[in-house]
Amino acid sequence: MAPTSLGQLKPRKQPVQDRSHATVDAIFEATVQVLLRDGARKLTTRRIAERAGVSIGTLYQYFPGKEALLYALVSRQLDLAASAVEEACRENHGRPINQCSDTFVNAYIDAKASNPESSRALYQATAGLDMKELIDTAIMRLHRAAYSLLASSSDDLVDDLDNVVFSLIAVVTGGTRQIFEGDDTATRLPTFREQLARMCRAYLNESKVSKRV
User: Fold this and answer.
1) Looking at 23-37, 77-91, 173-187, which range is the least confident one?
2) Going by C-beta distance under 8 Å and a sequence separation of 6 or more, which residues neighbour residue 11?
3) Do 59 and 152 lie in a common domain?
4) Of 30, 10, 27, whose CA–CA distance to 19 is shortest?
5) Range of 67-71, 89-93, 187-191 with top mean pLDDT
6) Handedness of CA 9, 128, 143, 99 (dihedral sign)
7) Are 153 and 95 in contact, with CB atoms under 8 Å apart?
8) What is the full DSSP assignment across 75-136?
9) 138 and 79 in one domain?
10) Which has more confidence, 12 or 83?
11) Is residue 3 part of a domain?
12) What is the pLDDT of residues 42-70, one digit of tens each?
């Protein structure tokens, strides 16, 4: 099957009025529900429209196809996750480096853990779509938030902070995705969270070069 082009993934129009926002929200919620109920292979725009209580024509007013709908849904979820991490980082500026590290790790996991079943379903359903633009944008936002947070640390400076943050984000996002793609997320998540936080604290402390005066 030929890969879906980025142009085919763009929504046809953006909701403006409250009613339009409610319609798109219902379509997004129905998409997740159908994914969880029927699986990615049986996900169709007709089933989504039926579940959302809208006509197939209404769905196509906003999304040219299933792939565009999934793309928009992932875009929203990535935006919500990045926004949550950004807010948590801003609220903890100036804290000790260990607390800064825990803030970033926990904020990211919490954003993904709010609905682990839907996160796993979306990971599986979008495996063949070109999400690079969305992911790059989200990673850039995470990088800025983590960099600003760690640079503000009240007690320690980190050597080569830009590369340190790059590695930190790769570990946190990659490890978290692996957890949510598995079938035993609920069982593994508490231990994973604790061990990931410990790992990141150790890495950042190893990267310290001097004390603030």
Assistant:
1) 173-187
2) 62, 63, 64, 68, 71, 72
3) no
4) 27
5) 89-93
6) positive
7) yes
8) HHHHHHHHHHHHHHHHHTTTS-HHHHHHHHHHHHHHHHHTSHHHHHHHHHHTTTS--HHHHH
9) yes
10) 83
11) no
12) 999 999 999 999 999 999 999 999 999 99
